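Handout, section B. The chain below has 127 residues.
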Amino acid sequence: MSAAILEMRNANVPVTSLIHPNPISWNTVFNHFSELLNVPLVAHTEWLQKLEDQLTVSGCNLHALRLLNMYRNIRLEWGFEAEAALANVANENSKNGSPSLANSPQLTTNDADRWMNYWRSIGFIHY
């Protein structure tokens, strides 16, 4: 991705966005994370309610509470496939401005494993 950033810096396109042109679906990646972490997947509305319930817990300092207004405004009417709409934002400009990005291989659960291993190696998550 560093090559894509350098290529886009010099590209003659008005707007770019560093979005992988061949993303992995939310269902695939989150089901994989769920298995790795041994945690259940829950509906967004259930998760949001549990987060809002933390507002009344004395001394609760969850970082997610800082983004509560944003989470309240997320509409997942199409389930976890909503990333398809986000992936189209300036994607064509990005591919035109970066051959490295345009030729990126499909993301897989192996990539998700590498993300998890990295996050674990820096102490961001523990499992």
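Note. The two ends are 27 Å apart (CA to CA). Compare this with the example in section A.
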